[in-house]
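Attaching the record inline, Q. Sequence:
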Amino acid sequence: MSNDFVYGKNSVLEALKSGKRNINKIIISKNVNNDVKTNEIIDLAKNKKVVFQFLPKEKFQMYREYNHQGIIAFVSPIEYMELADFLETKKEHAKILVLDGVQDPHNLGSIIRTCVCAGFDAIMMSVRKNSPINATVEKTSAGAVNHIPIIAVNSLSSALEKLKRHDYWIIASDAKGKDNYFDVDYTDMNLAVVLGGEDAGVSKTIMNIADFTVKIPMFNRFNSLNVSNAAAILIYEVIKQLVQKSKNIV
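Structure, as predicted:
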């Protein structure tokens, strides 16, 4: 499926709210539940002069494999940000999540949603090794893709070296990492947390670039934590430390 439409109430609503997407048309099933979100979508579409139309449910048959909830919007693709442009927007304690080969769109969508909820500043990923931002990613992220810069690069290793030259610390997650993830102090640095793909993990090239390698302790000889779960654990350890430090300062 191409990334020229999004489906589901949350995804369509966030695409409308963000103002970052050109929405060509919204189609709504005549059988859709007339709830608060549906009405909000209709009201926003009217205010933004976005064309929408009600269609019989038969017209949605070609989308039956997707949980569209009776609403689909035809939109422009997500616009990726250039790394150089992101680096121009300097801020203290900048936080980037870097993805090295996450190919499952459901995992990618969940990770994006967590990053937005946690206030991370950007997501960076290789254009060749990761899942593209498609409608499944948008749906799984509940529209969060519209609320965070996504940096797409050709060479992840070159991009990470560039981050290091701009005073970022690179933290790679690996089952054989040197430190437990909760033993590293994340509070006084610009950081880029790197997670690998579902099967291969973080590449050796990236591991050699990393300033820290961290692990999530595993027990019962079962070393198979989903990458989106691992991302949530690492992301919120960073946030926990920053919040605690902020409280101590106050």
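The radius of gyration is 20 Å. The first helix runs from residue 9 to 18.

More tomorrow.
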